[in-house]
Design brief:
- The protein has 450 residues and is α/β, with parallel strands linked by helices.
- Helices cover 38% and strands 20% of the residues.
- The radius of gyration is 22 Å and the shape is globular.
Length: 450
């Protein structure tokens, strides 16, 4: 069997391998057996959340069938943000949490993310063991030991109350006009409610999911709608979430977009001033801009880099006890409050900084001048391995040499799509673009030849 898990669970186009109902049932049975194996006679439970994709119904039922067949009791949360699943897995003393979502991907895609009983995503090792169980097949429970399934109607309200505790208790959002873009996704109800309850004047967009419009022309990957809405309504700030609300992109009062790097720079600076940034360290991935690293160094702070994927950020944070990390794409992890990236929570922290500082969003979202950065993608077909091609390796070596000293080159396969991602940074945009294009052309030639 091919590798199932990517950088963030299992993901692909619905009704195509690996995202078929049959395989979802088998995955459900495999994780059910894995989490029951040490205490098979005990009562076990799993919570399942989903975003608003049409295929979510199919995968919810398939996973439920697989899990209950091994004796797991299933608690169905319905549409909730991914961080709510991490939170409720722990608070409801569940053995396992499952989120059905393909995050920022189009509506035709879907995915399955898993959380352990501690509310954190599963490690690579656990995922490999589950893959082995899927391949081998598992033994179902005896007829009298089959699990039950139950709807939990107040999951989103529990999440709303928990997320409000991350906002300063003495602070309100009175007088702030906030555009919130929910990407027609999992947070379409909770995000506007949280902001309204805290006192903001809320202008919501992307809150009419129909199963097929998640992330379509809206959300963190398409912030143009929210930016236009901010300007049109004279709003103070825009908050753009993705389909499962675990990432955020912020928009200032002029309609300019601020990415995760700018937000992390702001929070690292503020937390350091408040004495709460552990070891003066921010954890981010290799994709974060060199400008962020230079900014932190200038403040006497440190950037620690990981592989791409918010769970690798979380693993490093847990390993060394750090409390702030994230990705340029908008996954922001605040370990004092949550076990995974939480876009709405990050948005609330930004609003708290906006109120406390008295500055405009445009000031807070421009903490440093980014080093010019260029990212290009090349799609490849199943079974191809363009990065093993000798001409591609030669192009990479040549581009690394051209950038040496004043920039860097990053080549990687996407963990969620069949893409080779080619990213470079350099103070000279022409040198940077030439370095990227050299590699892109070599990869494209290798793919075409294959």
């Amino acid at each position: 069997m091919d590798k199932l898990f990517g950088t963030d669970g299992v993901r692909g186009t619905a009704n195509q391998y690996p995202m078929t109902a049959d395989l979802a049932l088998r995955i459900g049975a495999a994780v059910g057996q894995y989490f029951r194996r040490d205490a098979p006679s005990a009562v076990h439970r799993v919570v399942i959340g989903k975003d608003t994709r049409l295929s979510g119904y199919m995968f919810e039922n398939a996973l439920t069938a697989g899990l209950t067949s091994t004796g797991m009791n299933v608690l169905l949360l319905g549409p909730v943000p991914t961080p709510a699943v991490g939170l409720l897995t722990r608070s409801m003393r569940a053995d396992l949490g499952v989120m059905i979502s393909a995050s920022h991907n189009p509506a035709v895609d879907n995915g399955i993310k898993f959380f352990g009983p501690d509310g954190f995503k599963l490690s690579d090792q656990v995922e490999r063991e589950i893959e082995a169980l899927v391949a081998e097949g598992v033994s179902p429970a005896a007829a009298g030991d089959i699990g039950r399934a139950k709807r939990i109607d107040d999951g989103r309200f529990r999440y709303i109350e928990r997320i409000k505790t991350s906002f300063p208790r003495q602070m309100r959002l009175d007088g702030l006009k906030v555009v919130i873009d929910c990407a027609n996704g999992a947070a379409y109800r909770v995000a506007p409610e949280v902001l309204w309850e805290l006192g903001a004047t809320v202008i919501p967009v992307g809150i009419a999911p129909n199963g097929k419009n998640i992330n379509e022309g809206c959300g963190s990957t398409r912030p143009e709608l929210a930016a236009e809405t901010v300007v049109a309504h004279g709003a103070d700030v825009g908050i753009c979430l993705d389909g499962d609300a675990d990432r955020v992109i912020l928009i200032d009062e002029t309609g300019k977009v601020g990415d995760g790097d700018q937000f992390m720079a702001l929070m690292a600076e503020r937390w350091a001033q408040q004495g709460i940034l552990v070891d003066g360290t921010l954890v981010a991935t290799v994709m974060s801009n060199l400008g962020l690293e230079h900014f932190l160094t200038g403040k006497g702070l440190r950037l620690e880099r990981t592989a791409v994927g918010d769970r690798y950020v979380v693993e490093r944070m847990r390993e060394k006890g750090f409390n702030l990390g994230g990705e340029q794409s908008g996954h922001i992890v605040m370990m004092d409050h949550a076990t995974t990236g939480d876009g709405l929570m990050a948005g609330l922290q930004f609003l708290a900084a906006l109120i406390a500082s008295g500055d405009k969003a445009s000031s807070l979202l421009h903490r440093f001048d980014p080093v010019p950065q260029l990212l290009k993608n090349v799609r490849f077909a199943a079974g191809q391995a363009p990065l093993d091609d000798q001409s591609v390796k030669a192009a990479i070596t040549a581009s690394e040499k051209a950038l040496s000293g004043k920039g860097r080159l990053l080549i990687r396969k996407s963990g969620t799509e069949p893409l080779v991602r080619v990213m470079a940074e350099h103070e000279d945009p022409q040198i940077m673009e030439a370095a990227v294009d050299r590699v892109v052309e070599a990869v494209a030639d290798a793919v075409g030849a294959g």
